[in-house]
Amino acid sequence: MAISRRGFLKGVLCGGAVAMIGPSLLVPASADAADEIWKVSGSHWGAFRARIAGGMVMEVKPYDLDQNPTQMLEGIKGLIYSSSRIRYPMVRYEWLKNRDKANPATRGDNRFIRVTWDRALDLFYQELERIQTQYGPWALHAGQNGWRQTGQMHSCNNHMQRAVGLHGYYVRKVGDYSTGAGQVILPYVLGSTEVYAQGTSWPLIFENSDLIVLWANDPAKNLQVGWNCETHEGQGYLLQLRDKVADGSIKVISIDPVKTKTQNLLNCEHQYVNPQTDVALMLAIAHTLYREQRYDPTFIETYTLGFNEFLPYLMGEGEDKTEKSPEWAAPICGIDAEQIKGLARRMAEGRTQFMFGWGVQRQQHGEQPYWMGAVLAAMLGQIGLPGGGISYGHHYSSIGAPGSGASAPGAFPLNPDSDDERIHKNKDFKGYSSTIPVARWVDALLEPGKKVPFNGSTVTLPDIKMMVFSGCNPWHHQQDRNRMKRAFHTLETVVSIDYTWSATCRFSDIVLPACTQFERNDIDVYGSYSVRGVLAMKKLVDPLFQSRSDFHIMADLCRRFGRHKQYTRGMGEMAWVESLYEECRKANGEKFPMPPFAQFWEEGYVAFEGANPFVRHADFREDPEINPLGTPSGFIEIFSRKIASYQYDNCKGHPIWMEKAERSHGGPGSEKYPLWLQSCHPDMRLHSQMCESAPMRDKYAVQGREPVYLSAEDARRFGIKDGDLVRVFNDRGQLLAGAVISDNFPPGVVRIQEGAWYGPEGAEVGSLDTYGDPNTLSMDIGTSKLAQATSANTCLVSIEKFTGKPPEVTAFGGPDEVMPS
Ligand SMILES: Nc1nc2c(c(=O)[nH]1)N[C@H]1C(S)=C(S)[C@@H](COP(=O)(O)OP(=O)(O)OC[C@H]3O[C@@H](n4cnc5c(=O)[nH]c(N)nc54)[C@H](O)[C@@H]3O)O[C@H]1N2
Ligand SMILES: Nc1nc2c(c(=O)[nH]1)N[C@H]1C(S)=C(S)[C@@H](COP(=O)(O)OP(=O)(O)OC[C@H]3O[C@@H](n4cnc5c(=O)[nH]c(N)nc54)[C@H](O)[C@@H]3O)O[C@H]1N2
Ligand SMILES: [Mo]
């Protein structure tokens, strides 16, 4: 066991959770067979102990400090030893023959040739050089990133971007897929992005809330993973909440089209709402609060701006002459008018805490529900009170667990230490934008030079010729696979660095095998927000096959253009780990004493004591003059002059209800494609990570395919039985999936979880996806001219039983290896 008894006890005492000492502590795990050892590491899925024997990971068990481990730990072994691991550097056959003149339609043809590391890195370097000299920085996009594995030193997005940055400038992204609409709208409304901010502490919520409204929020599912090593404290609070629901001390309502995992766990009330119609429901609640004088005029007067500009719209005196009454909203959102009034009254009755999830802003006009949610919370007048107001993050990385207040270790730097170190100093983007909204890069490939409105400015889409991906999987994360496939035909060169043969690797030209995080030493914070401690992530096994750490790969790339020293700062892996630790130790000083590095590495963990209760927006409430919000006025902006000045047709000066391009339950497009496809985050994966873990997939796959969840009523309507192979389709694409009938789903709503690996029958556009990636069907449009974020949850489909001989699943196991001729 790499964690000493002393280090462990320190950790236990800090959380005041002495009860968690279990038998595992008393019996040293290393007392097993002589050649077996236990090592501790961390991950998105939490910290764990692994039993190593014969150079292999044999068993994975939760870390002693984790009281609520996720079952996803069971997938780790299958991830390391997956048949999809990339064994050696490979280059696409057609591309190697013809380079940038290769027929682009062959990209994705799955024919690769094995090359040496030297050859692969030479090719990568030559391509960077060719792009910078033949075109310029505008032709290279190396700025996409994603859910790299944990560990502050090996954070692979940083490694790739620093290395490519030492060579020259390139196009980057702004925003992310998670909260793209939320993080753009909320600074106008509440003065900060809110989504990643610390939230009111759970203990204070328990003490003060009468009602918690989970709005489009499934924390029991989503708190299983964290951005850094997850502690699962959030899960612990959910279990406490379950007890409070049971004894009646707190009421919880889950407003969601689906009965979520959380709703089932808490056994709380469920308020069904038609998909994508939350803003109509919120307007009707606001209407009731106003009509029945149940809102808080003093709060509105003291802390907000623009209520009077909003009121005419609400009360039917605006341009559209439509009163947003419960009777108006009822047929849109599928909730009876009296029921809506009842909801409004209950919200106004006591202390009410809104907790929003993020799926509801990952749809067309996704800015609106967040803005209107803030307006509702302002009308209730409880923003800044413990257990009241609004939160947009309690389902994420244990936000709401009171933080220690200590500093976490920093990461390997993303950028060159100085711009002078870059080989190519040319930063002339020829009028193209050097930064584009994260989800709009496919637009750039298809329409280079197009001018796109974005958040009050104009973006000119660059003419991208080469893309480099590391630690992200765009062939999972981006919407509308077939459109994207067409767009990829415009690219000359694609490079991917990954440990697994994701679809992105298959659609690349040069593929470099990284090792997994379990094959390198690292350091991480324990608890992304709570900062409970610092964890040593011990290398469990050597890099498999010819894989190398991202650090090793990128250092060797930099050697090719004489920037090896600048890249590494002359330090190796352990020197970096130590320096990140020492910086953290210095920052924490006397307040949070940390032992010298050697002792830490030996003991494996340093705990930070203390837990500081926190109330979101309390300082603003206390004194809005001294602690103004970051909005233009310093107040909560119900009407935003700034947004109104942009004159966007799809994001006006105050929140409004707008019809969607596609909407179920009688909305546009529902006659042809009657089912709403929601592509929520997976219960047993992290996006596409672990989909390749066969033992994990066995827990949920149906006939070897990704499940599509649907109601019994829809199953009857479409002639489908539980366990059937089905084709799910619309005008954008088609996929095979396995039907799972579930009481959690209402008629008209189906779910395929995001991250299912894309496995097309062939490279051609429109080809049937044999495994079930929902982005084969989703729509690739911006949320609005304001945020230009992803609209994945605006998507209609139809479904039919698949008859005939089912094609083999092509998603897993890597490409066909072509022998050099
Ligand atoms: N297990 C697991 N946990 C994760 C992740 C993972 O991949 N796996 N990913 C992490 C990441 S990166 C992120 S961004 C977060 C994602 O966090 P979220 O985006 O909040 O998660 P989702 O599950 O996609 O959606 C949450 C809920 O929104 C509901 N919903 C969708 N559309 C509507 C609507 O129109 N109206 C209403 N009322 N409800 C709606 C869905 O039914 C679902 O219950 O999760 C994080 N946690
Ligand atoms: N339809 C639909 N689409 C969605 C969403 C949705 O709700 N619906 N959600 C969106 C959201 S919120 C998000 S955050 C994105 C997630 O999108 P991504 O972050 O792109 O998804 P991941 O599957 O986590 O991809 C990470 C990739 O990095 C690789 N990787 C991990 N660690 C390392 C490493 O150390 N080194 C190297 N070289 N590679 C590594 C993994 O193998 C994997 O291929 O998806 C978005 N897409
Ligand atoms: Mo995300």
From TrEMBL:
It is found in: Periplasm. One of its GO terms (cellular component) is outer membrane-bounded periplasmic space. Exported by the Tat system. The keyword Transcription does not apply. Its cofactor is Mo-bis(molybdopterin guanine dinucleotide). Residues 85-559 form the Molybdopterin oxidoreductase domain. InterPro entries: Asp_de-COase-like_dom_sf, CT_DMSOR/BSOR/TMAOR, Molybdopterin_N, MoPterin_dinucl-bd_dom, Mopterin_OxRdtase, Mopterin_OxRdtase_prok_CS, Prok_Mopterin_Oxidored, TAT_signal. Keywords: Metal-binding, Molybdenum, Oxidoreductase, Periplasm, Signal. Residues 41-81 form the Molybdopterin oxidoreductase N-terminal domain. NCBIfam families: PRK15102.1, TAT_signal_seq, torA. Reduces trimethylamine-N-oxide (TMAO) into trimethylamine; an anaerobic reaction coupled to energy-yielding reactions. This is Trimethylamine-N-oxide reductase. It comes from Ferrimonas balearica (strain DSM 9799 / CCM 4581 / KCTC 23876 / PAT).
